Amino acid sequence: MKDALPAVYLARHGETAWTISHQHTGRTDLALTPNGEAQARRLGARLEGMKFAAVFTSPLQRAVRTAELAGFGRVAQVDPDVVEWNYGAYEGRTTAEILAERPGWQLFRDGCPGGESPEQVAARADRVIRKVRDIQGDVLLFSSAHLLRMFAARWLGLEPIAGKHFVLETASLSAVGYEHDRSEPVIRLWDERVSR
Predict the structure, then answer these.
(1) Alpha-carbon distance 186 to 105, whole Å?
(2) Is the pLDDT reported for residue 33 higher than 80?
(3) Would you tell me how many other CB atoms lie within 10 Å of the CB of residue 155?
(4) How many CB atoms lie under 10 A from the CB of residue 114?
(5) What is the pTM of this model?
(6) Nearest to 65, CA basis, from 16, 7, 131
(7) Selected catalytic residue, list 15, 84, 91, 116
């Protein structure tokens, strides 16, 4: 019997104060809210019994704490490449505020002044993809929305701007993998919400 093709599971961190207020949260190291901690525990219940050859997390506490509460704190390896987008001058600002001074702005096309460009974030995602494709077995990543959206776009071989099409809720679970063989990358699950 042919071995099952591996999958990469993408877990977005639980709720923070800035996810509630819709502020761009790049490198600001916010804690989870009490609801965010409850979401992370529910994510853990969803993942219970699943086996992973490797687990990686962003170094930011919202991802690390989500991994811990989901039951993967002891095995999760911190990987700086899975940290959220550096929003530079747009850190802490809402999309509405940015659009008021820069009409037509799109993160996945334009990037952020003083922060990262879409190409820079795509390069980080590409490094993570190369790493996880070398691992035999399923992999679990804990990170933030925009990095995971870029990861999905690059997994499929799409340009960075395609990340705008992959919306993610807090504490959601997604998975990418393959169809017939490793030459056919696909989305296997997207934005499964465990937050309710």
Answers:
(1) 29
(2) yes
(3) 22
(4) 11
(5) 0.95
(6) 16
(7) 84
